[in-house]
Amino acid sequence: MPSADVDHFAALLRDRLRHEHGPLSRRLAAALTDLARTGALSPGTRLPSERDLARVLECSRGAVAAAFNALFEDGICERKHGSGTYLTATGATSAMDRLLSPGAVFADLSTSVVPDPAHLHLPRLDPADLLRTPSRHGYDPRGEPGLLELLGDVLITGGGQQGIDLSTRCLARPGEAVLVEEPTYPGALAAITGCGARAVAVPTDERGMLPGALAEALTRHRPAFAYVQAVRNPTGAVADAERVRELAGIARDADLPVVADHTLAEVRHGGPPPGRFADTHPHGTIEVHSLSKTLWGGLRVGWLVAPEPLRSQLTELKQTGDLATSTVAQRFAAELLRHNDITAWRAELTRRRDHLSAALRRELPQWTWPAPAGGLSLWVRLPGTDADAFAERARELGVAVAPGSMFSPDGRYRDHLRLSFALTPELLDQAVPALARAWSDHA
């Protein structure tokens, strides 16, 4: 089971203690609970000892003991005789659980997805056509031949998330480090922690990971692989081609596998396409693709581009999970690809991005965000605000938003939100006044 590095752990606690009030033991218990609830710590993490934590926090051991006792009572942690204190599965909530949590809202800005399939041109199909496949039984391990004709020599998956999960299970072992950009996609963090690995954030700028920081992380952590994004979720930054070549060269020279997420690569609002790690590091790169961001998420059709022997290993792993992706979904996806050009949908998304940006500037001029060159969301900073608490208030008023702590392996970005602009302008116009009211109530 992974252990929490005491100095790093203390830094996370200090950041949270600043937002709490009251006796230290109560503040410490609340901060520890928050680390669990936001997914900053994965189930099974071994916490530092009371003595070590008291030392680095420069507080009494009694205060730490009282905080731990409160966590035991609430089921957040458990003691294992002779081993230490561990975070329980009950106490931890993954970022994906929080993102997809149910609730009565009229505007869901929390999920960066195509909101509905209304933009699609639907082909005329005989249902029997969806059931025809050369194998007849439909268990085609790598994918339905008709879809493979359009996509090439790839492995079809049940959406991009399955592709990330398969790649993670193929490359990482429990306890190993996986390098990620920060902020990054919560689904990737869930896949990494789900297989017992630990996500390690590498500093970035608008062009991607910093090359020096990547080189340092390679030496310090000896990672299993690096997870990167062609269009970054949540910021909307597009991977710079020159930076990608430099990073891919570092990864190639270090024999570091790379999982490159291209699920948003086609969702750009002008500008050049993202760089491809596979161009420089072809034998060590797995590309993850999906139709969820361009056609519709409900199709659950994606694909992996990978060199041998990685592709064969990924195929074997997939067969242990679901044998094969639905033939019906694949044949329908192939027909949709033949009858739809995403250019018009991409232009509509750009219009919705600009619409939400203008509305936020009018109603909430204190909020700031970088103009996203791609993706379906704004990465918004709320100055001096605990975004987790703000998100709860916004949901009470009928608007779901994604707090920034979900996008960091350490639960950082507590003053940020991800806001999807994929909904219709009419719904966005209803959502912004509710956000302004939540902001006014929270201030």
Automatic annotation (TrEMBL):
Name any one Pfam family assigned in the record: Aminotran_1_2
HTH gntR-type domain location, by residue? Answer: 22-90
- Which keywords are on file for this protein? Aminotransferase, DNA-binding, Pyridoxal phosphate, Transcription, Transcription regulation, Transferase
Q: Give one GO term, molecular function aspect.
A: DNA-binding transcription factor activity
Q: Which family does it belong to?
A: In the C-terminal section; belongs to the class-I pyridoxal-phosphate-dependent aminotransferase family.
Q: What is this protein called?
A: PLP-dependent aminotransferase family protein
Organism per entry: Saccharopolyspora hirsuta
